[in-house]
């Protein structure tokens, strides 16, 4: 009966999530809160790819200037199959709906894995699926535009589920698709392979494929593909976020080896600790009881925590996409260990595992890690007698702790245990929402559709579909299905054919979307373009200004062909 209720609740939660979040992401787009980075970028890339111009885009942002190809900044081969979505509906809305559906159905492997690991609490699987869907980090990924990286979240979960069910072919397919989402995801795949081989006895050949394949994929992307498409660049386009460590990746490695304390003196800050606490609090800190399952998340955590850009460790952007799956997996395993001990202390082993497996699970708890770490450390200094003594002391302390917990476990029935567990998870979920509400508030749509949106759409419709455009960030995604578009204040675009910078034909800027301190500067820039005779005001409404390039310039350019 409880299993049927669990499935029914899961279906209800999924439907509510999909309907509500689809409405929110579409409304956010329609009221011009979506941005050029990255909905405008991805829309133009996919539109161009579908029309045979693979990975091409011309948006130029304030943080990088490079060739008009996505391959110059990220290696995301999943763009190729994603472009087929535009056969059904060639506009950004389909990307937002697809991303919502993919993230939502990531709850299914969470549910199934929780059922397999915690078999005597059927409703726990539904609770974990709900915790996944309403995790602030996941909501941020879903709300903030579209990123191929977001698809790695459900794909990694499905891969672990397939491997756990010994469906290795499906597991590899899911991992390949996840690795195709961004150049650093294969590092996560490699560490996942290492974890599964060392800890969970994955077949060695399969583990070797994951480890070696993941490492080679990332190395090829970072050191061959991206440099090839961005010739002349001395290092990664985003290295400015890590220049505290060194002027280049090589210099950073040398600095860390020579001055390892830099990692502690520079990057252990309150806001970074809050970021980690927010991630772990999403599942009531249960992930700490299975810390080995956080190993595959280390590349993404390092990228976020070592950055000087606070957006990466704000906890609500797409940078958490490959961390979320392993928070969930570690929490499921951590809960399994709590229940294993609870059954062991009560003397009731049958609902969960055999006695042999319980002993194995018991040895993986924190006491074992602390004891073995102490033994290994002290053996390096050849203090054998002391290490043996510490091991015996640790073992006795663990036995005493178990003896203390036996009366408590026997007095805590299954029903009361569920109440305590679910109450704790609910309390942590609510607390996390309260704490993360301010950063998430910037993503939620803040008003319904109205007359302003209609007037702005009228201005956008005045721009021919084949014209080149410079648009402000929030208008950019509504005009990005064209060959040439850039981000204002840039008014030139680079063409892969001509290899020259060309002035755009139209400029459209939403002054109301700018910060007050930027509005005056942008207004002056627009006035300067008009006063110089290079552009003329074509129309304006609701704080949006539309400029057209002067007629004589357009005539000369058309004559040139």
Notes on the protein architecture:
The chain folds into three domains: 2-233 and 269-335, no CATH class; 340-436, no CATH class; 451-560, no CATH class. Helices cover 59% and strands 5% of the residues. The protein has 23 helices and seven strands. The chain has helices at residues 2-30, 36-50, 79-82, 92-104, 107-117, 122-133, 136-143, 152-164, 168-179, 185-198, 204-229, 249-258, 262-267, 270-281, 298-305, 324-346, 355-362, 366-379, 384-411, 414-441, 451-461, 516-531, 551-560, and strands at 469-471, 485-487, 492-494, 501-503, 506-510, 535-541, 544-549. A five-stranded mixed sheet has the order 2-1-5-7-6. Strands 3-4 form a two-stranded antiparallel sheet. A hairpin with a 6-residue loop joins β3 and β4 (501-503). The longest helix is centred in the first third of the chain and has 29 residues, at 2-30. The chain is globular, with a radius of gyration of 27 Å. The termini are far apart. 40% of the residues are buried.
